[in-house]
Specification:
With 464 residues, this protein is an alpha+beta fold. It has one domain. The chain has helices at 5-12, 24-48, 79-89, 126-159, 170-174, 222-236, 322-340, 344-348, 405-412, 416-425, and strands at 16-21, 74-77, 114-115, 123-124, 164-169, 197-202, 209-218, 239-241, 249-255, 263-269, 298-300, 311-313, 315-317, 374-378, 381-392, 395-404, 435-436, 441-445, 450-456. The strands form five sheets. Strands 2-1-10-9-7-6-5 form a seven-stranded mixed β-sheet, with helices on both faces. Helix 2 packs across helix 6 and helix 9 packs antiparallel against helix 10. The protein is globular, with a radius of gyration of 22 Å.
């Protein structure tokens, strides 16, 4: 029997425990999984005399460590917050058939995938298990992103309370400086490993800290997560910010078993790199528009005495590019915010041609567009954005995504620098409640000023 939509909405706002695993036993298990994978690749190459890229021994982060800030091995999240994080992460993904607008609504297909309560751990619901039978890889991958980034934001905010954490899609950011695929114009190497996201920890007027993040998910077991983390360590190794091999990073694998609770396995790499230059106080700074750059995709290795300097495939942000890359990250993050609010024109101003500016202007196919024409007062704040109406077990529900009104006005007018000042000043003042009585449903507000809310469509309390 289908659960009534009212009960589904209540479940979405319910806080539940998420199991966390990050210790030295995990470090050893991932190292063993990496060694097994390397051995398999060597054997396959020898047997088949293969020269395929997938048979090459992978470059991986040489030293991984537990994430000490996790401490008690569990954390509480609401399913709705996980979907908010996922929606923000995929707002610029361009996975659909048309432009990126409304991509974030794809997170809503998991509205019934998770279940739990304050006295238990989150796990797949009956609907989530059924979906896994048909869309196993897609569901585990996308929910893995949601859990990983929700916990990454939390642990980084705890480590750096004087910073705001922005999550930026790595492919979109990198495309401002490098050609990634054959469809991109510019110098290119056939190197397919790269992180999925960057976490930028920023403070107005100060250098930002950038960490590559790779996150995966599975419906299997811990052994599968060990192999996924070994693979993820190759993806984060593809980007170096500053000195060789000094870029800190985070890797995640979320285990979503059909029987059992959700467990997030995670490790980190330490280092003195990742720091960018302070924004230029002169001129328009972050408000200035960007054009595509054409850097060669290579990582410079340290020179050894009088030997010639060598390089390997990958992406290296060198000191002369620090200010430029900080500019890219800030404007790409701004594009994600305005896309989440449904405004294509505002989004296009922040992207270069290679980043996909054209996907946010012009023609849109029927039913996949998004229009920024809605506003609501939620948890004491006014937000502007876009809405989406769909059926949840036969009942019409309304979802709303947006940005706090004054902050959106700054972004719509290209004022990224002022937006960041305002967000920084109010970073600890946002409401943490997961339900708004006057709205009538779950609400999630993030420190970047975004909101995701859902309720029964007014006037439609049951199936029609």
């Amino acid at each position: 029997m289908l659960k009534p939509a009212e009960h589904v909405l209540t479940d979405l706002a319910q806080r539940s425990n998420v199991s966390l695993h990050s210790d030295y036993s995990l470090v050893g298990a991932v190292a063993a999984a990496a060694a097994d994978d390397d051995e398999r690749r060597v054997k396959k190459r020898a047997e088949e005399n293969s020269v395929k890229d997938e048979d090459e021994i992978l470059r991986r982060k040489p030293e991984l460590h537990p994430i000490r800030a996790w401490g008690d091995n569990s954390s509480q999240l609401t399913p709705w917050n996980v979907l908010h994080v996922l929606g923000r992460a995929i707002a610029l993904s361009r996975r659909g058939a048309a432009r990126g607008l409304a991509e974030h609504w794809g997170a809503l297909k998991y509205s019934q995938a998770l279940t739990g309560d304050t006295g238990s751990f989150l796990k797949l619901s009956a609907e989530g298990k059924e979906t896994a039978d048909y869309y196993k890889a897609n569901q585990s991958s996308e929910l893995g992103v949601g859990f990983a980034l929700a916990l990454a934001r939390r642990v980084l905010a705890q480590r750096h309370p004087d910073r705001v954490v922005s999550i930026v899609p790595a492919d979109t950011a990198l495309r401002a400086g490098w050609a990634l695929t054959s469809r991109d114009k510019g110098l290119r190497q056939n190197y397919r490993y790269r992180p999925q996201f960057f976490a930028e920890l920023w403070k107005p007027g100060a250098p930002s800290l950038v960490l590559p993040i790779a996150c995966k998910g599975n419906h299997s077991n811990a052994a599968h997560s060990h192999a996924q983390l070994a693979s993820a360590s190759a993806h984060v190794e593809a980007v170096h910010v500053g000195p060789w091999n000094e870029t800190p990073c985070l890797i995640f694998s979320t285990e979503l078993p059909l029987d059992g609770h959700v467990t997030v396995h995670a490790l980190c790499a330490k280092g003195s790199g990742g720091w960018l230059a302070s924004p230029n106080a002169e001129g328009s700074g972050l408000d200035a528009k960007l054009s595509d750059a054409n850097h060669f995709p290579q990582i410079h290795l340290p020179s050894n005495g009088d030997e010639a300097r060598t390089s390997i495939p990958g992406f290296h942000v060198t000191p002369d590019q620090y200010e430029w890359f900080g500019h890219v990250l800030a404007r790409t993050a701004a594009a994600g915010l305005t896309a989440f609010a449904g405004n294509g024109e505002a989004t296009a101003q922040y992207l270069t041609e290679r980043q996909g500016r054209k996907h946010f202007i012009g023609f849109t196919h029927a039913a996949i567009g998004s229009v920024q024409d809605a506003n609501h007062n939620l948890l004491g704040n006014r937000f502007v954005g876009t809405d989406h109406v769909f059926r949840l077990n036969g009942t019409r529900v309304e979802a709303f995504s947006g940005v706090e009104a004054a902050l959106f006005d700054l972004l719509a007018h290209g004022r990224v620098t002022q937006y960041r000042r305002e967000v920084y000043e109010h970073r600890s003042a946002w409401p943490s409640d997961s339900w708004d009585r006057s709205w009538g449903g779950p609400v999630s507000v993030h420190p970047d000023g975004t909101v995701l809310a859902i309720r029964l469509l007014p006037g439609h309390a049951g199936p029609v």
